Amino acid sequence: MNKWESSLNVPLGKNKIIIISLTQKGHDLAQRLCSLISARHVHKPTPFAVTVQRYFKHQHPLIFITATGIAVRSLAPVIHSKKSDPPILVMDEQGEFIIPLLSGHEGGANEWARGLSELLTAQLVITTAAPYQKPVYVIGMGCDRGCPESYLQALIDAHIPTATLQQVVAITSINLKQNEQALLALSQRLNIDFICYPATTLNSVAEQLSYKSEIVFREVGCYGVAEAAALIHAHHITQQPAELALIKHKNKRATIALARSYPKDQ
Question: Options 3.30.70.420, 3.50.50.60, 3.30.470.10, 3.40.50.11220; which CATH number does 5-124 get?
């Protein structure tokens, strides 16, 4: 069971999560979700309203990859109470935004959506009255000497949604890369600070890394660069615990990771 699944106030073994899609892009996102979580995908159910209302009445947690209005109009006749209705989420077909639509507090939709946003590196949109804070995101990067900027941008395009990139406050790396032209050019073009840390500082979060590389340690003196630099700087900004929103991903010349931290409630 994923950590976000345990927050649902429903017996998932009996009431399987059902993902509803209507478009080809929505279909593709639903298939991706099914590879990450235990869920059933139903594409273009017919008749639409009758089918989704039946799932709702049987207490299935639902993820609509549709317009919010479609979900609202379809479920309106069967919505009963926030204390008994199943949790309902809505996502855009690009997978950039997640909205807890129904049963946010009592049904666990808010925390479910938060966990799912972590899996997808998507933007959580909370509309209920709660002390949620917008996260601070930090990108960590490493690269070969002389790496072209295009390899760095390719990693961002592949792994960082546009909505998340807008919340990134810094690109970070190890001190050895402080004069790396591609990293400097990327940060300048994106208008994001470029911050570097020494290997000894990066090693202070070694236990949080998804993988501790002995090869990297022998080469630069720390067990990882991208993940560690992102974690260190996210914590530095908020003075709160930081976590990996995206573990290390690589292409032929570069590495990327993404860390997140939530400012302390005021």
Answer: 3.40.50.11220
How many beta carbons lie within 10 A of that of residue 223, not counting itself? Answer: 21
CATH code linked to domain 136-261:
3.30.420.180
Residue 14 banded pLDDT, cuts 50, 70, 90: low
- As a whole number, the mean pLDDT across the chain is 88
Q: Which amino acid is at 3?
A: K
Q: Does the structure show a pLDDT above 90 at 177?
A: yes
CATH 3.40.50.11220: which residues of the chain? 5-124
C-beta separation of 145 from 180 below 8 A: yes
- The structure's pTM equals 0.59
Ranges in the chain annotated CATH 3.30.420.180? 136-261
pLDDT at 3: 39
Q: Residue 7 above 70 pLDDT?
A: no
Residue 159 pLDDT exceeds 80: yes
